[in-house]
Amino acid sequence: MVHRTARTGLRLTHAQRQRCFGLLRSAGDVWSCALEINGWRRRRGDAPAAGYQELCRLLAQSGPGTFGELDSTGARSVLRRYSDAWFSAAARRKAGAVEVRFPRRRRSLMPIRWYHGTFGLEGCRVRLPVARGYPPLLLRLARLVPYPAATVRSVTLLFADGRLWIDVTAELPVATYPADQQPDPDRVAGVDLGIIHPFAVATRDGHALLVSGRAIRAEHRLHLADTKGRRRATARRAPSKGQRGSRRWRKTRRRARLIGGRHRRRTRQALHEAAKTVVGWAVDHRIGTLTVGDPRDVLDVQAGRRHNLRLRQWQIGRTLQILQDKAALAGIRVHLVDERGTSSTCPHCGKKITKPSGRTMACRHCQFAGHRDLATAFTIAARTPGSAITTCTPIAAQVVTHRRAGRRLPGVATARRDPRRPPPRAAAGGSVGRRRPAPPLISGRESLAHTRGRGSTTSPDLNR
């Protein structure tokens, strides 16, 4: 069994929106109370109250009605989050990460999670529990939950990117296959992660997959250009340090948060599409093991502000997590190996070569030539623990499948127009832009000028 989470928006009335924000503020008060109690204990030299059971006893001593409409289940979820954060920081500090801090930052809005049996979900309606004496809170979801109702284990109310959301977590069984179609663990494929190609996959029998991420890169660049232009335009009305912003400035900042959230959702959806393509291709080829090169070591290398920006937009950790989740649901194992030196190693003879600057790798020792990312993926596959892969099938004999990631990004398909670009001129109805001479009449078509003059017996005089 694996757990998957889907996020959906909410369609709320003004009163429902205010009640949801009231619950999130009450959850923030629970978090602040935990911080305040441990602050008192720290100043007295006492042991901190970090255990979940101890925090729940303190919550029970506070009595009903202390946190408004928030019920005990939602308050305990906040205490569980605090306890996990505290013990995680303690474990990392014990391991030597002295820069890690214990949770001491107050938050005005905190996510609230309700577990199975405490909420109701039917179709596009979800019922959230509230404290005793308050009317029930029924919310309408923006879309149907993509999981069967019997598999849903928890729902989480949160505020992110300027909007209210519901996260629905379900427990799903691992996919099953017929006897002759299940993934074979002995069939190994190497996966190379990148920016231009988020996934490059190569197998032992000469099959390969290339997923292009140029649309994702274009989305990052357009969003960065729009952000720069928006900041230049709003620099004059930005409040100075220590000055409270105006209502106009708050509206500007809210709009910027909405646009930033939309950009993150688009790129995240594109990464999901790319990972789904890889897992589906692996299932079709009965691949049971994916060996992925872990490039997260390059994040600590300073390579200039431009390249550092590219690495920050790459989202390596999220890409790995998405691939691992989808592979686990399909019953495919994922191994992470060190990819150091794979881009400068010939997959055919194994000798060191000069790292290519283009997309083609050429070896002067064995005259091997092929796509750089696919050659790197095969070298990564050879590093699978217990693997017997030693040589690479020539690129000319490979079957390479090309796919694109981000098919639903604006501007990629004609069905979805990029809102950053001006709309096309309407062929009929609405504004037609500045006046131009009418085009000549073609058989089967009419110009706009003739369409406006329909019903008149005389042709318009263009010299008037």
Automatic annotation (TrEMBL):
Residues 173-298 form the Probable transposase IS891/IS1136/IS1341 domain. Residues 229-252 have a biased composition (Basic residues). It comes from the Bacteria. Residues 318-380 form the Cas12f1-like TNB domain. InterPro entries: Cas12f1-like_TNB, Transposase. Keywords: DNA recombination, DNA-binding, Transposition. Pfam families: Cas12f1-like_TNB, OrfB_IS605. One of its GO terms (molecular function) is DNA binding. Residues 227-252, 403-464 are annotated as: Disordered. Residues 454-464 have a biased composition (Polar residues). One of its GO terms (biological process) is transposition. NCBIfam families: guided_TnpB. In the C-terminal section; belongs to the transposase 35 family. This is Putative transposase. It comes from Paractinoplanes atraurantiacus. The lineage of its organism: Bacteria, Bacillati, Actinomycetota, Actinomycetes, Micromonosporales.
